Amino acid sequence: MRYKILGDRVKIIDSYLIPKAKYSRELSSIRALHPTCRLWHRSEGSIKREWATHTLAYSLHIRRDKTADCDLNYELRWYHNLLYWIIGNIALLFIK
């Protein structure tokens, strides 16, 4: 898995290629190398839902140029949090 640590987010490159069963392991690998990253202020469930939402959008051919990579933001606005909670939980049911 390739990723970049940026000022306000972690970008997972080609995130749609990673099956949801490996999300926890991949996040743990990043956390082990970057334990002070501000992303870890969020819950793992919140991070996984954001990632799953991007993967679902990619699989539905929605803005593939934007959804092929997943930008895991350090902080979410309340409406993004709500959106990822709703769509992310649905996405986790359907994506592989």
Structural overview:
- This protein has helices at residues 23-33, 44-59, 64-67, 78-94, and strands spanning 2-5, 9-13, 70-73.
- It is of the alpha+beta class.
- The protein has one domain (2-94).
- The protein has a three-stranded antiparallel sheet with strand order 1-2-3.
- The longest helix has 17 residues, at 78-94.
- The protein is globular.
- 23% of the residues are buried.
Keywords, separated by commas or semicolons:
single chain, 96 residues, alpha+beta, 3-stranded antiparallel beta sheet, globular
Lay out the secondary structure.
Elements: E1 2-5, E2 9-13, H1 23-33, H2 44-59, H3 64-67, E3 70-73, H4 78-94
Antiparallel strand pairs: 1-2, 2-3
What is the gyration radius calculated from CA atoms?
12 Å
Return the string of H and E elements.
Answer: EEHHHEH
Reported for the largest beta sheet, the result is: 3 strands, antiparallel
How much strand content do the residues show? 5-15%
Q: In DSSP terms, counting alpha (H) and pi (I) runs of 4 or more, how many helices?
A: 4
**What shape does the CA trace take?**
globular
How far do the termini sit from each other? 17 Å
Number of strands: 3
Name the average pLDDT: 97
Strand order of the largest sheet: 1-2-3
Low confidence ranges:
none
Total discrete domains: 1
Query: Based on helices, strands and strand pairing, what is the structural class?
Result: alpha+beta
The amount of helix comes to: 40-55%
